[in-house]
Amino acid sequence: MSRNSRKNRLKKSQDTTRRRRKRNKLLPRVGALLTALLLLSAFGIFARAALTGVSGATSFTVEEVTVEGTRYLDPAVLLALAEPERFKTGEVGEEDLEQLGARVAAHPLVRNVAIRRSLPASVIIEIEELVPVALLNGSPVMGIDDEGNILSGLEPQRYGALPFITGAVLENEEERKPALLRAIEVLRVLREDTPRLYDTVSEVQPGVDGEITLVLSGDAVLVRLQENTIQEKLPLVSSLVQEGRERHGPISEVDLRFADMVIYRELKGGE
């Protein structure tokens, strides 16, 4: 064999060895890449399935329905309105959930309803209640929310000692809503600025020309104020009432409607 032939054979052998080593190094990398692609694909399928289930885009079987967010309302009453037994007949879709929410939202003391799924087979009804800030005397007693809306179907004992809004102006249909809003604003200021005084107020009476009368619990002392001086004079009410009792004995009224003047009316009608 010639020298050139031996060189050619040696070169081919070396080339083959290099290609084999390169292939052996490349195979693990290709395998790892394929494994990663398979995992990503599986994760994508799972994520799409999970998101589809949460959004309610596909039907599913419901095994449990619960109510959350109640503070004063009875969850069992709202659950009865939802009629979850309808879900026992088969699979549930987005339209079914919307109808469930509409049935619960029909309750007069429910402000908002949100329905969400809890995988694998639960539905949660989240509600926001309409909460009264005051009461209207009548048969039955009705509540008033913070927007001046009258709430029916109320169980007053569930809400604690709320003040009443009373007064002749409420008998005027055109004046009722504005008068309620004025009284609600006074109650808000009382709660935020003078909470101790708020706890002693049993009634708020909106009157004409911006007059507001507070009726204090216990001896039913009347405190007369003007709306434009409410924030200025409310912090003084408790001390002025106490001063009047000490100076005059039992009093029926403390009149704070006039600038730089306090008028006490005794219980028997004298000033």
Architecture overview:
This protein is of the alpha/beta class and 271 residues long. It has three domains: 1-55; 64-129, membrane protein fhac (Ubiquitin-like (UB roll)); 134-266, Cell division protein FtsQ/DivIB (Rossmann fold). Helix content is 43%, strand content 21%. It is built from six helices and twelve strands. The strands form three sheets. A six-stranded mixed sheet has the order 7-8-9-10-11-12, covered by helices on one side. A hairpin with a 3-residue loop joins strand 2 and strand 3. The chain is elongated. It starts with a helix and ends in a 5-residue tail after the last strand. Residues 42-57 have low confidence and may be disordered.
Helix-strand pattern, N to C?
A: HEHHEEEEEEHHEEEHEE
Q: Tally the helices.
A: 6
Through-space gap between termini = 142 Å
Tell me which CATH architecture of the largest domain applies here.
3-Layer(aba) Sandwich
Residue stretches low in confidence (pLDDT < 50, at least 5 long) are 42-57
Mean pLDDT: 81
* Beta-strand fraction estimate: 15-25%
Q: What is the count of β-strands?
A: 12
Oligomerization category of the chains in this entry: single chain
Give the domain tally: 3
* Radius of gyration over all CA atoms, rounded: 37 Å
